[in-house]
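Bumping with the actual sequence this time:
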Amino acid sequence: MSTISRRQAITGAATVGVGVPLLAACGDDGSDPKADASDPATSSAPQPSTDAPSDTGAPTSDPPAGGGISTSDVPVGGGIVVVEESVVVTQPTEGEFKAFTAVCTHAGCLVARVSTEIECDCHGSRYSIEDGSVVGGPAPTPLGEFTVTVSGDQITVE
């Protein structure tokens, strides 16, 4: 039979007394709008398919509303983040447009910007502008890809 000393009992109680509130503070109370954008139940943003293991299938909900993305808005060799729609539109080479979910696959934050890569500031994940694949950071899977249609100078994400 093992026994614990009074000192061990007090130390253990103090650890639980401090640890439990700290863990509770780390929980998600659902009030973070960036976190909510990644939750299909609370977001109207398009959601890429999660049926395929690579998570690069067609979206499972309606495409982004509003449109209004002009080809001139998307720089060659870069892209833009359309925050309202949780979509990233890129132009890896002139005239080739791609669209991905803007929700980082690591922690559900919205990606911050597009330079030569799609960049998430939350934990440093980076993705390819060509195919949404992970090129750095803790992200476990690529960004989901959407279908892009260009008509004249207007880009539609489906």
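The tokens above came from a reply further down the thread. The chain has one domain: 33-157.
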